[in-house]
Amino acid sequence: MQALAERTGGTYTPSAGTVYPRLAKLEEEGLVTKSAEGRKTVYAITPAGRAELDGRADELDGIEAGLSDSVRMIAEEVRGSVREAMRSLRAELAAAARDGRTGAGASRGAGAASGSGSGSASAADPAPAPDPRIPGATAQHPRTPPGPPGIPAPAAAPSCIAPTPW
Questions:
Q1: Do 13 and 4 touch, CB atoms closer than 8 A?
Q2: Contact 127/139 with Cβ under 8 angstroms?
Q3: What are 85-140's pLDDT values in tens digits?
Q4: Where are the domains of the chain?
Q5: Rounded to 5, what percent of the chain is helix, strand, coil?
Q6: The whole model's pTM is what?
Q7: Cα separation of 86 and 94, whole Å?
Q8: What architecture does CATH give domain 1-55?
Q9: SS3 state of residue 32
């Protein structure tokens, strides 16, 4: 079963309920033999089974070629999906960085204009609310789930950093 999964690149892993009934049928037809080696059951192809394989070599080649094509197609789709996800992630990170720089500059300017000069958030700034989409999110930051027990939660995010919706 493991060898078949490896031959198909993991795209098909047969279950015992699929393999053993077929092996029993092949044994009934005299195409394989079964023997016990300790706790293992070993199946071996018989001369009649070898003749059957040789007679169907073209069919088997076609099946293997089809499997190879399927595995190749799936791999190409996965690579494309990963590339697209990475492209999207890079764009979102770049946008978040731009928003953070723009928001931080505006906050510093506002602080300087009010005379504080520290660039910190004023007491009038509302605290961020927990994100209802994330179970256990705290008011410290909308996307901050609670940490492991015994480890303090991270400090609140500065109000100059606007949370980006994912």
A1: yes
A2: yes
A3: 999 999 999 988 888 877 655 554 444 444 444 444 445 555 556 556 666 555 54
A4: 1-55, 57-99
A5: 50, 5, 40
A6: 0.42
A7: 12
A8: Orthogonal Bundle (1.10)
A9: strand
